[in-house]
Write a structure and sequence with these properties.
- It comes from Gelidibacter algens.
- Belongs to the sigma-70 factor family. ECF subfamily.
- InterPro entries: RNA_pol_sigma-70-like, RNA_pol_sigma-70_dom, RNA_pol_sigma70_r2, RNA_pol_sigma70_r4_t2, RNA_pol_sigma_r2, RNA_pol_sigma_r3/r4-like, WH-like_DNA-bd_sf.
- One of its GO terms (molecular function) is DNA binding.
- The protein folds into two domains: 98 residues, Orthogonal Bundle (Rna Polymerase Sigma Factor, Chain: A); 73 residues, Orthogonal Bundle (Arc Repressor Mutant, subunit A).
- Helix 7 crosses helix 8.
- The protein has eight helices and no strands.
- By secondary structure, it is mostly helical.
- The chain is 76% helix and 0% strand.
- The chain starts with a helix and ends with a helix.
Length: 182
Amino acid sequence: MEIKQIIEKAKKNDQSAFNVLLDFFWNDVYGFQLKRTENENDAEDITIQTFSKAFDKISSYNDTYEFKTWLITISKNIHIDFIRKRKSSFQTRSRYNNTDDFNDIIDESPSPEDKLITEQNLAKLLRDIKKLKPHYQEVINLRYFQELSYKEISEELNEPINNVKVKLLRAKKLLAEIIAKK
């Protein structure tokens, strides 16, 4: 089947078409980001965000352009946002550092209040995760709580790695919608 036909199926929300597009273009986008970030984790995160955003906005894709070019453009913009966030975080931290106090050591360990807030937020997050279907709960648990790699999750669930990636994308999107409804 031709890519244009697969894109048309994806525009009609065909999950198998999303899988085919992810399989077909994953290496292009990931390789592009790996060259830019020189960090496998950042490249993987940005690539996942790229496909998530592309799949959410697939109805706006204009087929006069190459699909790969459209994906790379989305990926490039996500990377730019990623750099901006890092820069602003770094500038904020450096703005508050007093250059006369080089010898002061800052205690960055969480206070008892911080720990309590974190525990409460984690409890809320876990309640929200429980609202997902069991297979989405499982993939989120394996990735974020057990910190398994995609390959390890793939082996654990006995599913192809790209299915794990798509399932995780979908789970994160559904979880975000649950959280946003509150």
